[in-house]
Design brief:
Number of helices: 15
Largest sheet: 8 strands, parallel
Radius of gyration: 23 Å
Structural class: alpha/beta
Shape: globular
Helix content: 25-40%
CATH topology of one domain: TIM Barrel
CATH superfamily of one domain: Glycosidases
CATH class of one domain: Alpha Beta
Distance between the termini: 22 Å
Bound molecules: 1-O-alpha-D-glucopyranosyl-D-fructose, calcium ion
CATH architecture of one domain: Alpha-Beta Barrel
Length: about 550
């Protein structure tokens, strides 16, 4: 019999702890705050929480710069709070997925502090060093958050390599001691009872800087397999690699059903479509709709049976989907639900990013109200390069990561119920119109839509197993597909735009019943209202 993994039926909820719930009024979300909101998550129906990093960290990149992997940053609580969260979540059948940042550590990690003491230090080789002359780095590689990827250390007369900020030195995975230390640390978390791991920029660990290789280095899958058999395969864990360099070919390795690597990967092909070719995400371009369908169709069909998809629109690095490709004004509710239907109907494990289930939107702040290192560095760089202020700000409004990092909107009270103090980042001013308190009891809210979809996934096996087929790939308005298994079939039909439109039904749609529609009042059979999304279902 084909064994089915629990995480294939699961829905994962991502929490960005700093912005979720503050319990002590210091303006920063924390672990006790998450515990206070577990009932809300249980009501939504999710199976696991992916927790963005809460380890001890100087917070240069909001915790993605770790100075102690086996401790909790005091601003989030302590290890006892973490154990309590795992326990309290467990009571509600919710697992905790930790975020593992293994490509780099903080420059304040004891390993790095030792490493830069001398070339002979036992920790020196934990990082990636090259000899050189001051002012002449080994090559012209750039860091993700701007500037050179090489940082000079005068005492050693060497450069260290960092793919992200200068405070995030890259770990040297070619050193077996580094790998062993990492596996021990992971095992320590498994023993604490966590349910799985999300692996930050995992495709970049096997870098070869002399050849300017960052993602997909030659030894990448060797290292992943070693880690998987050393730790992951010992438990019934969910593991998901973050891989901006994933394509459908290597995704079959990452998510090989034999379990030799991870459960699945995050791929970003669909999410990078609205930028100018060969340029940065800040260089905006309209979404090519037909291409979006082609890309998702390829991922759906090529991984079917030989891999497994992660499904997402939003995370802590991305703008809000309803503002990005939907309409966050007159059709906010309808378009937010349409994106939910479109995604949750596909094959794979859906990820819901905090606030997405409320239809939270992007923000437009003044530059001094942003906090993200990526935004602030880009702003400075592009100002220096002479870009017009308006262009820069428009890029930030469209793509800035802080769009996703504004505090969770719980209710109408001050600071949206997120904090009794001053939030570390400004609350989206629309929290009186968009908040959880209003939505949880409203049968027509975005929240109720997510809740319903999560329940449908658990009820009808076709959501998990059904083969995907895109319908009318060239249709300029509808994103429509079917899912079919031996004894069930469903259709997901979405009007992707803000005008009503005619849909020509497929022949065997006759025998189906309407399982879900994102509008309350029933409409015309073959005419779809703006952003109307329907699911039709039949037992064969
Ligand atoms: O993101 C990986 C990554 O490549 C991002 O920096 C991406 O390029 C950028 O967000 C696009 O806007 C992961 C984490 O998700 C991110 O939050 C971290 O900043 C980054 O790794 C470094 O750890
Ligand atoms: Ca706090």
């Amino acid at each position: 019999m084909k064994e089915s993994k629990w995480w294939k039926k699961a829905v994962i909820y991502q929490i960005y702890p700093k912005s979720f719930q503050d319990s002590n009024g210091d303006g920063i979300g924390d672990l006790r705050g998450i515990v206070q909101r577990l009932d809300y998550l249980e009501d939504l129906g999710i199976d696991a929480i992916w927790l963005s990093p809460v380890y001890r960290s100087p917070q240069d990149d909001n915790g993605y710069d770790i100075s102690n992997y086996q401790d909790i940053d005091p601003m989030f609580g302590d290890i006892g709070d973490m154990e309590n969260l795992i326990r309290e979540a467990g009571k509600r059948n919710i697992k905790i997925i930790m975020d593992l940042v293994l490509n780099h550590s903080s420059d304040e990690h004891p390993w790095f502090c030792e490493a830069k003491k001398s070339r002979e230090n036992p920790y020196h080789d934990y990082y990636v060093w090259r000899d050189g002359e001051e002012g002449t780095p080994p090559n012209d590689m750039r860091a993700s958050f701007g500037g050179s990827a090489w940082e000079w250390v005068p005492e050693l007369k060497q450069y260290y390599f960092h793919q992200f900020s200068v405070k995030q030195p890259d770990l040297n995975w070619d050193n077996p001691k580094v790998r062993q230390e990492i596996y021990q640390m992971i095992q320590w978390w498994i023993d604490k009872g966590v349910g799985g791991f999300r692996l930050d920029v995992i495709d970049q660990i096997a870098k070869e800087p002399d050849q300017k290789i960052t993602a997909n280095g030659p030894r990448l899958h060797e290292y992943i397999r070693e880690m998987s058999s050393a730790v992951f395969q010992k438990g019934d864990l969910i593991t998901v690699g973050e891989a901006w360099g994933a394509n459908t070919e290597n995704a079959k390795l990452y998510s090989n059903p034999d379990g030799s690597e991870f459960s699945m990967v995050f791929q970003f092909e669909h999410i990078c479509l609205d930028q100018q070719e060969g340029k940065e995400k800040w260089d905006l371009a309209p979404l090519p709709f037909i291409k979006l369908k082609e890309v998702l169709n390829r991922w759906q069909t090529e991984l079917d049976g030989c891999g497994w998809n992660s499904l997402f629109w939003d995370n802590h690095d991305l703008p809000r989907i309803v503002s990005r490709w939907g309409n966050d004004r007159e059709y906010r509710v309808e378009s937010a639900k349409m994106f939910a239907v479109l995604l949750h109907g596909m094959q794979g494990t859906p990820y819901v990013y905090q606030g997405e289930e409320l239809g939270m939107t992007n923000v437009r702040y003044s530059i001094d109200e942003y906090r993200d290192i990526e935004i602030l560095n880009m702003y400075r760089e592009r100002r220096e390069q002479g870009y017009p202020e308006d262009d820069i700000m428009n890029s930030i409004y469209a793509k800035g990561r802080d769009n996703a990092r504004t505090p969770m909107q719980w209710d109408k009270s001050e600071n949206a119920g997120f904090s009794a103090g001053t939030p570390w980042i400004r609350v989206n001013p629309n929290y009186r119109e968009i908040n959880a308190a209003d939505e949880v009891h409203d049968p027509d809210s975005v929240f109720t839509c997510y809740k319903t979809l999560i329940r449908l996934r658990k009820k009808y096996p076709v959501f998990v197993e059904g083969h995907f087929a895109l319908i009318q790939p060239e249709n300029e308005i509808f994103f429509a597909y079917s899912r079919e298994s031996d004894d069930e079939k469903m259709y997901v039909i979405c009007n992707f735009f803000g005008q009503k439109a005619e849909w020509k039904p497929e022949e065997d749609q006759n025998g189906t019943k309407l399982l879900y529609c994102n509008y309350k009042a029933s409409g015309e059979t073959d005419c779809y209202r703006p952003y109307e999304a329907r699911i039709y279902y039949m037992k064969k």
